[in-house]
Write a structure and sequence with these properties.
The complex is a heterodimer. Chain A is of the alpha+beta class. Chain A is built from 10 helices and 4 strands. In chain A, helix 7 packs parallel to helix 10. By secondary structure, chain B is α/β, with parallel strands linked by helices. In chain B, helix 3 packs across helix 4, helix 3 packs parallel to helix 5 and helix 4 packs across helix 5. The radius of gyration of chain B is 17 Å and the shape is globular. The chains are: A alpha+beta, B alpha/beta. The interface between A and B is medium-sized, with 29 and 35 residues. Bound molecules: adenosine-5'-diphosphate and magnesium ion. Adenosine-5'-diphosphate (ADP) binds next to helix 1 of chain B.
Chain lengths: 307, 224
């Protein structure tokens, strides 16, 4: 690979990039710091959004849609409603629970207060159809439509689909996506603008060098490559810094959040971004920084032939 | 080797610097380009290497129609041209060896070959012992030797020197001229812009005179 002229030209460009960065170490470090602050904002917004998404998914997985039938509803009708519900695209599995089973299940789920049921002469619980949703389908409007459809059936008393929590999570996630997205976009613009201006300065500092290279036959594209590398280096270093800070920051926050009783947040496991997301972020941040840097320098035709 | 036809270059608000000029320089020639300050010598050189575009006319250098080239093609064409400037234009934060190796780095030559050729060409200009020096540690004459080494290291077919002795005293000027003549003897076509009558008189080479927008071939012998 290093045997071809093109590969050696790339190595030369990389050396030029490193020299450019090393020639103004303080500027380089400040740029990396500034860019990493804006990348940190992006990563933080992303982490919050990802955790909210996870909470919604987890909620969908854990909380079933319960269709309470009116007291007189027959078992046959209950089974029909269950199979009708099961045909909905959102539903992973639906089944009919006769009142006795519902009571049995109640006792299992809440052993401490379950005994109280024995005081009732008749089965105190309503016949119920329980639908488990597919975990990936969290679209609130579709869940609502599904619940509303069931609610219209004459045998149905009420449908519990975790309305309040679902709606709250949905509002939160919409807000996070909107506000976080806008902030992240702003942060990205600031970060990339910083990279672009610093690289342009770096270019101006070595205009003479670029001019000489162009006199001796460096192509316009070649003259941009060192700046692509400079931008990539700044992007990579800043994103590593931002990701480290965000990872440590969020692990601290999550450990503090652990004081919340698990029953209050139904055991949603808070977590930092996945390795895939981390690597994607680094790659995209580096590449975009490199490209921005590369297009923000303008290798002139060498207008300054100073005598 | 250099073919200029009906070349005109005018800057806004003044009469054309080069007004419909034509001339040829054959392969292997050594030519002086002279004329008073402001006559357009530098402008002509800039056009020859495609760093300035004429208003009209065509230019061929080393068989390449530089006036019709894209910037990418121009860059490739410049690889067969060497350029020497009056103010040397060495990069201050690079050593002599690094400065001289730039044209070869641009070509993507292997490091070992670069080292060997840099040493050889620095030996030719009498500077093999100063490879690790920085330009500020050298005298003007030494800096110009390094600049000539840089212009020759990639074996260009054409060497353009724009007032290469302008900042040097007479004795140093002659020794720089010797280097350029030696490059010519080794096969390079050389054009030296100068307004030094002394140089022109000493070397009986062909002289092209720029002035009032025109060009005049004064033949050889230094009757300017
Ligand atoms: N970029 C430019 N813009 C305007 N005028 C220019 C420019 N470059 C050169 N000139 C003018 O062209 C004329 C020729 O300049 P130059 O080629 O440098 O002459 P020489 O090298 O013979 O001294 C001068 O009058 C100069 O002012
Ligand atoms: Mg000049």
């Amino acid at each position: 690979m290093s045997e071809t002229p093109a590969a050696r030209q790339l190595q030369f460009a990389a050396r030029l990039a490193m020299q450019g960065l090393a020639r103004a170490p303080l500027t380089t470090m400040l740029t990396i710091l500034t860019a990493s602050l804006s990348f940190f904002a992006i990563v933080t917004a992303w982490t919050i959004a990802a955790n909210l998404d996870m909470a919604l998914l987890r909620f969908n997985e854990v909380v079933r849609v319960s269709v309470f039938l009116k007291p007189g509803a027959s078992d046959a009708r209950g089974k029909e409603i269950a199979s009708q519900a099961a045909r909905n695209a959102l539903v992973r599995e639906a089944r009919y629970l006769p009142p006795a089973d519902a009571a049995e299940r109640f006792r299992r789920q809440f052993p401490d207060i379950g005994a109280a049921l024995d005081q009732f002469p008749d089965p105190p619980l309503l016949p119920t159809v329980e639908a488990a949703l597919k975990p990936g389908d969290t679209d609130l409007a579709r869940v609502q439509a599904f619940a509303a459809g069931l609610q219209k059936l004459p045998e149905v008393d009420s449908v519990d689909y975790g309305k309040d929590v679902r709606e709250a999570l949905d509002r939160l996630s919409a807000a996070v996506y909107r506000i976080g997205g806008a902030l992240a976009l702003l942060a990205a613009v600031i970060g990339l603008f910083t990279v672009a201006s610093v690289v342009r300065l770096s270019y101006a500092r070595r205009a003479g060098e670029m001019h000489i290279l162009s006199v001796f036959g460096a192509t316009p594209v070649f003259l941009r490559i060192p700046y692509f590398f400079e931008g990539m280096f700044i992007g990579a270093a800043s994103s590593v810094l931002a990701l480290l800070a965000a990872a440590f920051g969020s692990s601290w926050v999550f450990s503090e959040l652990a004081v919340i009783p698990e029953s209050l947040y139904s055991g949603f496991g808070f977590s930092f971004l996945s390795w895939g997301a981390v690597l994607t972020f680094m790659l995209v941040a580096s590449l975009v920084s490199g490209l921005i840097a590369m297009i923000s320098v303008r290798p002139g035709a060498g207008s300054e032939w100073i005598e | 080797m250099i073919e200029v036809q009906s070349l005109t270059r005018a800057f806004a608000g003044s009469p054309p610097v080069l007004n419909n000029i034509s001339f040829r320089v054959e392969r292997g020639e050594f030519v002086f380009l002279t004329g008073p300050s402001g006559a357009g010598k530098t402008t002509l050189f800039r056009i020859l290497i495609g760093m300035d575009q004429p208003n009209s006319g065509t230019v061929r250098v080393a068989d390449q129609p530089v006036t019709q080239f894209t910037r990418h093609q121009l860059a490739l064409a410049r690889r067969s041209i060497g350029v020497v400037f009056q103010d040397f234009k060495l990069l201050p934060n690079r050593t002599v060896a690094e400065n001289v190796s730039l044209p070869l780095e641009v070509l993507g030559k292997p490091p070992a070959q670069i080292r060997a050729r840099v040493f050889k060409v620095l030996t030719r200009v009498g500077m093999p012992h100063r490879q690790q020096a920085y330009p500020r540690q050298l005298s003007g004459g030494e800096q110009q030797r390094v600049a000539i080494a840089r212009a020759l290291v990639h074996d260009p077919q054409v060497l353009l020197a724009d007032e290469p002795t302008g900042n040097l005293d007479t004795e140093r000027s002659f020794s720089i001229l010797e280097l350029l003549r030696e490059a010519n003897a080794r096969g390079a076509t050389v054009v030296v812009a100068t307004h030094s009558a002394e140089l022109i008189e000493k070397y009986h080479s062909r002289v092209l005179v720029l002035g009032d927008g025109g060009i005049r071939d004064a033949g050889s012998g230094g009757s300017v």
